[in-house]
């Protein structure tokens, strides 16, 4: 009977300590994330506007603009087919084009 009494008292003490630790953790609040973003070796162009000419097929129509990482993806549709144009968002330079062609079975 003494062993059972000691076990119950020991577990009660562990419960009180556990509740105290949970209360302490809640009172400290949420930890702030550490900002680990590093700048690439690209030149700094903040605040500098740019102009860029984008070659568009004749009769093409801009259907959609999407941001993907550091690039903008523009989807053009024309009678010749759809075309994706990738632009570097920092510099406005043309990064590449992708022609969407239908597959034949």
Provide a descriptive summary of the structure in words.
The structure is a single chain. The chain has 105 residues and is α+β, with helices and mostly antiparallel strands. Among the domains are: 1-28; 61-100. It has one helix at 2-28; strands at 61-68, 71-78, 81-88, 94-100. It has a four-stranded antiparallel β-sheet, with no helix packed on it. A hairpin with a 2-residue loop joins strand 1 and strand 2. The N and C termini lie far apart (83 Å).
Could you give a short description of this structure?
This protein has one helix at residues 2-28, and strands at 61-68, 71-78, 81-88, 94-100.
* Number of discrete helical segments: 1
Shape: elongated
* Portion of residues within helices: 25-40%
Compute the separation of the termini in Å.
Answer: 83 Å
Report strand order across the widest sheet.
1-2-3-4
* Mean model confidence by pLDDT: 81
Biggest beta-sheet profile: 4 strands, antiparallel
Q: Which class best fits the helix and strand makeup?
A: alpha+beta
Backbone CA Rg:
30 Å
Q: How much of the residues is beta strand, in percent?
A: 25-35%
Q: Helices and strands, in N-to-C order?
A: HEEEE
List the uncertain runs.
38-42
Strands, total number? 4
């Amino acid at each position: 009977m003494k062993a059972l009494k000691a076990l119950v008292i020991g577990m009660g003490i562990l419960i009180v300590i556990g509740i105290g630790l949970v209360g302490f953790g809640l009172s400290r609040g949420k930890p702030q994330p550490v900002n680990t973003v590093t700048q690439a070796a690209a030149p700094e162009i903040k605040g500098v506007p740019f102009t860029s000419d984008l070659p568009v097929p004749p009769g093409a129509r801009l259907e959609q603009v999407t941001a993907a990482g550091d690039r903008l993806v523009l989807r053009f549709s024309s009678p010749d087919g759809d075309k994706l144009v990738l632009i570097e968002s920092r510099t406005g330079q043309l990064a590449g084009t992708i022609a969407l062609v239908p597959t034949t079975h």
